[in-house]
Design goal:
Blueprint: H1 2-24, E1 27-29, E2 43-45, E3 51-53, H2 54-57, E4 62-67, H3 73-90, E5 94-100, H4 112-121, E6 128-130, H5 135-140, E7 144-145, E8 147-152, E9 157-159, H6 177-188, E10 199-202
Parallel strand pairs: 4-5, 5-6
Antiparallel strand pairs: 1-10, 2-3, 4-8, 7-10, 8-9
């Protein structure tokens, strides 16, 4: 009887761990944009050790902050388009930075070494920073990958939507919603009232 109880406890513990992994990986979408919210300062490093702060990254007309990671299928699906949009936005005075906040001790695919490989593979021409303590993701209220924060020249939030309207794995014509919104922000300082949430995998928090 005791052996049976021990076996049941083992099975129960396995089920609990499986459910926890499922919760950590669940699909989430971003909240409604909190227009005018002031972006908190940060100072982070690239995998190679180069430091970047919020103030040093700011473009003449704004900054796009992208919380992403290497392994998420939703990031992989949009990364080529994101890199292309970032290049175009630079011409409008909007800089871009990507931040990786996942607990890479438990997700080896998101390690700094893999970040460098991912950035080089996809031709990043913007910094890809390691949020080692996950403090920046928590300060910003980031919840998933990808999670976009479009800031104006005063570093106030004006966009919290998706990259575009293409479905997962789809190709072809698209409505480049983030790019269009950031151009509007560059011109007027304000983002569009109507925004569609970004969808992605939950951020992998340490200890959860």
């Amino acid at each position: 009887m005791l052996a049976q109880c021990g076996g049941l406890r083992y099975i129960y513990a396995g089920i609990v761990q499986t459910l926890k992994r499922a919760v950590r990986s669940m699909l989430l979408d971003t909240p409604i944009c909190d227009f005018g919210w002031q972006a908190p300062a940060f100072d982070l490093k690239t995998p190679k050790g180069a430091r970047h702060s919020l103030s040093s990254l700011r473009g003449e007309r704004g900054l796009l902050i992208c919380f992403i990671c290497n392994h998420c299928p939703y990031v992989k699906a949009i990364i080529t388009r994101l890199v292309a949009d970032a290049k175009t936005l630079r011409q409008d005075g909007i800089n871009t930075v990507a931040i990786m906040s996942n607990d890479y001790q438990n997700v080896a695919a998101d390690s700094p070494e893999q970040m460098q490989i991912f950035a080089e593979k996809h031709g990043f021409d913007f910094p890809y920073l390691v949020d080692e303590q996950q403090a920046v993701a928590r300060a910003y209220g980031a919840i998933c990958t990808p999670d976009f924060f479009g800031l104006n020249a005063e570093l106030r939030l004006q966009y919290r939507g998706r990259l575009d309207d293409l479905k997962m794995g789809a190709n072809g014509e698209r409505n480049a919603e983030l790019s269009e919104a950031m151009r509007q922000i560059a011109k007027t300082g304000a983002g569009p009232a109507a925004q569609t949430p970004s969808v992605g995998c939950s951020i992998k928090w340490r200890g959860e």
